[in-house]
Amino acid sequence: MAALYQGGNLMVRTKVCCITNRRELELAISYGAAAVGFVSHMPSGPGVISEDTIAELVQATPYPVWSEVLTSLTELPGLLAQYQRLKPGALQLCQPLAEPVLRELREALPGVTLVHVVHVADSSAVDEARMYAPLVDGLLLDSGSTEGPARQLGGTGRTHDWSLDAAIVQEVLVPVFLAGGLTPENVGEAIATVKPFGVDVCSGVRKDDMLDEDRLQKFMHAVRQSG
User: Fold this and answer.
1) Which of 54, 185, 196, 223 fits a disulfide with 38 by CB distance 3.0 to 4.6 angstroms?
2) CA 143, CA 42: separation in Å to the nearest integer?
3) Buried-state track 22-53, b at ≥16 Cβ within 10 A, e below 16
4) Is residue 164 scored above 60 in pLDDT?
5) pTM summary value
6) 105/52 Cα distance (integer angstroms)
């Protein structure tokens, strides 16, 4: 299990997602991000950057900050090839993966953290989280949908029912990150309600399609105050 998911303290970790360039990476790190997320090809949503840029940013991410690549791929050969091109610390699996694929991926990449996204729309998300939890190193609970032609795999800027997230946290034995419409104004309440291992933010700290230092500072302060 990766370093980000170890440790006995109760500090809520923050992952700053949708990082697009070196300036944003350095800004996120300077304000205490435990992890940073880089978005590869998605059917919709913000923050998508080229794999060449992702590879450069992964290499520029200093230890102990954790680099995560968000992927919409679902087949083993594509996932393995993407990992070999980018070499992040973690893969965030944004679409549902079949259990055999997850098991083969885990076997093929024993030193890589696997985080499976659960899109929380109704109570079925609790069952989905229970199913994935034994197969991965962590879960990320987000708003969105994996169904239909207009799939939304993250970055929606929308919150969802936090009581369902709280139920998932109580049910599973792996670390849980909470995402979906978090802002400096609501993240304290979200943490108090859900009690996640960490929080994940994208649109809530961005302005005019750029990471905004003022909003990031306020967000990180609110997370620290929640402890």
Assistant:
1) 54
2) 15
3) eebbebbbebbbbbbbbbbebeebbbbbeeee
4) yes
5) 0.91
6) 23
CA distance 196 to 178: 6
Q: Which two tokens stand for residue 194?
A: 């859900």
Percentage of the residues of the chain whose pLDDT score is greater than 90: 83
pLDDT tens per residue, range 113-161: 999 999 998 899 999 999 999 999 999 999 875 554 444 545 556 788 9
Contacts of 119 (CB under 8 A, 6+ apart): 125, 142, 143, 144, 145, 146, 153
Rg from Cα positions in the chain: 16
Count other Cβ atoms within 10 Å, centred on residue 129.
23
Predicted local distance difference test score (pLDDT) of residue 18: 96
Homologous superfamily (CATH) of 12-226 is Aldolase class I (3.20.20.70)
User: What are 114's strand-pairing partners?
Assistant: 91
Cα 116 to Cα 141: distance, rounded to the nearest angstrom: 9
Residue 29 DSSP SS3: helix
Hunting for tokens 């060449």 — which residue is that?
52
β-strands 13-16, 210-211 pairing? unpaired
- Judged by DSSP in three states, 179 sits in coil
Alpha helices for 43-96 (secondary structure H): 51-60, 76-86
List the domain boundaries for the chain: 12-226
d(CA 152, CA 146): 6
Are the beta carbons of 96 and 75 closer than 8 angstroms?
no
